[in-house]
TrEMBL record:
InterPro entries given in the database record: GHMP_kinase_C_dom, GHMP_kinase_C_sf, GHMP_kinase_N_dom, IspE, Ribosomal_Su5_D2-typ_SF, Ribsml_uS5_D2-typ_fold_subgr
Ranges of residues in domain GHMP kinase C-terminal: 210-273
Domain GHMP kinase N-terminal: from-to ranges: 66-143
Keywords for this protein: ATP-binding, Isoprene biosynthesis, Kinase, Nucleotide-binding, Transferase
Pathway annotation from the record: Isoprenoid biosynthesis; isopentenyl diphosphate biosynthesis via DXP pathway; isopentenyl diphosphate from 1-deoxy-D-xylulose 5-phosphate: step 3/6
Protein name per UniProt: 4-diphosphocytidyl-2-C-methyl-D-erythritol kinase
GO biological process, one term: terpenoid biosynthetic process
Binding positions for ATP per the UniProt entry: P94, V95, A96, A97, G98, L99, A100, G101, G102, S103, S104
Encoding gene per record: ispE
Length: 289
């Protein structure tokens, strides 16, 4: 038996940090949505009692460091599954980029194995299990647009934002999510208008969304990686309606409504940035191609 799942990348339309918690995580409020850049995961039922990860991408670990591996192990143990699984990951999302590629692979594994192993778990149950693997996994299980609270695992679904094109550009040098959170100065935060962003999304107000893009981790990553600022400036110069860094970075995204403008930004970045993508904003559950 065999099952296929798509694992789309996410971008942060807002990211606010409220305070540091006793468990060392940060209490956050952020609005995330999905874009049409996705890994493809194939799940093959094995009779042997093992989880096997196969990927041609050298940055994707094939052991317990892989979040898809951890998701599969968690389901196996929690539901005492005697079968095994081989998971083939066709990696399209850049790794360690602020696009939640690993978390989305874990979420796709929860959805895929729920079908392969016929567990009949609800999306909410899968999202709760996801929180045990990583803060962003619950959002990725829903695979839509949402306000995420807590350490990221408390999800309130939202409608899809207005349709637009998204240009993604990833600087060469990655950043560690943990070190970005650790370097944030908490009493010096200019908070995003999260409620205003929720309303703009609900009203399908494209300019309202553009005007409220804000991520409080951006200044931290900017100070570690000057390429982030260079890419932001270049995107604005070549016609993006709004630009922001996603998550802890370093990927920057720009929003535009016309495809021709997205192509112009893409072409203007190709000279000095190796990883540039033009994709559509998805924002709601998508079927496989
Ligand atoms: C910044 C965000 C925004 O979407 O995404 P990415 O940049 O990773 O895509 C997330 O908060 C990242 O989520 P995720 O990458 O799943 O985080 P985890 O594996 O749970 O945690 C990695 C480390 O980040 C820090 N962390 C994470 C979440 C949180 N609310 N507070 C934190 O302080 C902790 O130091 C933790 O050890
Ligand atoms: N399935 C996976 N795909 C990519 N990276 C993974 C995966 N599982 C674990 N990782 C590890 O997680 C780290 C963060 O990767 P990723 O999820 O792509 O980035 P981010 O958290 O910035 O969105 C990487 O250093 C990588 O080694």
């Amino acid at each position: 038996m065999y099952v296929l799942e798509k694992a789309p990348a996410k971008i942060n339309l807002t990211l606010d940090v409220l305070y540091k918690r006793p468990d060392q995580y940060h209490e956050i409020e952020m609005i995330m949505t999905t874009v049409d850049l996705a890994d493809r995961l194939e799940f093959f039922l094995l009779q042997e009692d093992k989880v096997e990860i196969v990927s041609e991408n050298r940055f994707v670990p094939n052991d317990e460091r892989n979040l898809a591996y951890r998701a599969a192990k968690l389901l196996k143990e929690r539901f005492q599954i005697e079968h095994g699984v081989k998971i083939k990951i066709d990696k399209q999302i850049p790794v360690a980029a602020g696009l939640a590629g690993g978390s989305s692979d874990a979420a796709a594994t929860f959805r895929g194995l729920n079908r392969l192993w016929e567990l009949n778990l609800s999306t909410e149950e899968l999202a709760n299990l996801g929180a045990e693997v990583g803060s962003d996994v619950s959002f990725c299980v829903y695979n839509s647009t949402a306000l995420a609270k807590g350490r990221g695992e408390t999800i309130v679904e939202l409608p899809a934002p207005p349709k637009c094109w998204v240009v993604l550009a990833k600087p060469v040098q990655g950043v560690s999510t943990q070190s970005v959170y650790q370097s944030l100065v908490l009493d010096d935060i200019d908070h995003p208008d999260t409620k205003g962003m929720v309303n703009a999304i609900k009203q399908s107000d494209y300019l309202g969304v553009c005007n409220r893009l804000k991520n409080v981790l951006e200044t931290v990553t900017l100070s570690m990686n000057p390429e982030v600022a260079q890419i932001k400036e270049q995107m604005i110069r070549s016609g993006a309606d709004a630009v922001l860094m996603s998550g802890s970075g370093p990927t920057v995204f720009g929003l535009v409504q016309q495809e021709s403008r997205a192509d112009r930004i893409y072409n203007s970045l190709r000279g000095f940035c190796e990883e540039v993508y033009v994709v559509r904003l998805l924002g709601s559950h998508q079927k496989l191609d």
